[in-house]
Design a protein that fits this description.
mainly alpha, elongated
C-alpha cells in the first residue's frame, strides 16, 4: 500500500518548499518569455545561446526539485528535501549567472564577478542528485 507520509515520520514537509519551487517554476516561464520576446533582438546569437542554456537548466531543475519534494513522501524525507534546496541553490547560481553573463553588456557587470558562479551552481546540481541517491539508499524497504 502506498503511504503519503515521509519515511522518517519526523514531520510532514511544510508548505514553504512547494511554494518556493512553484515560484522558481513561474520565474522560469517569465524569464524564458522575456528572453524570447524582449532580448532576442538585443543579444547576439552567442549571448542568446547562453541565456537559453540558463533557461533549460532552470526548467530541468525546477522539475527535479518538484520530483524530489514529491519523493520525500516515499523516500527518506530529510535527504529528499535537501535535494530540493540544493537544486534551487543551483538554479540561482548556475542559471542566474548565465542570465547575467548573457546580459552583461546591458547591465554592465564584469564577467569576473559572475563567471565563477556557474560551475559552483553546477556542483549544487550534482549534490542535489547525490542527495536523491542517498535518500533512496536510506529509505527503509517495505
Amino acid at each position: 500500500m502506498i503511504t503519503l507520509r515521509p519515511q522518517d515520520n519526523k514531520s510532514m514537509p511544510n508548505k514553504s518548499l512547494p511554494i518556493v519551487i512553484s515560484v522558481f517554476g513561474a520565474l522560469a516561464v517569465i524569464l524564458g518569455a522575456f528572453g524570447s520576446h524582449g532580448l532576442k533582438e538585443t543579444l547576439s546569437p552567442d549571448r542568446m545561446g547562453i541565456y537559453e542554456t540558463g533557461i533549460q537548466y532552470h526548467f530541468y531543475h525546477v522539475l527535479a526539485a518538484l520530483g524530489a519534494y514529491l519523493a520525500s513522501f516515499r523516500l527518506h524525507a530529510k535527504w529528499s528535501r535537501n535535494a530540493c534546496v540544493l537544486f534551487l541553490i543551483g538554479i540561482c547560481l548556475f542559471s542566474g549567472s548565465l542570465y547575467l553573463l548573457a546580459c552583461r553588456d546591458l547591465i554592465k557587470i564584469p564577467v569576473a564577478i559572475v563567471g565563477p558562479l556557474t560551475p559552483v551552481g553546477g556542483v549544487f546540481f550534482i549534490l542535489g542528485w547525490i542527495s536523491l541517491i542517498i535518500a533512496t539508499i536510506k529509505t527503509k524497504s517495505s
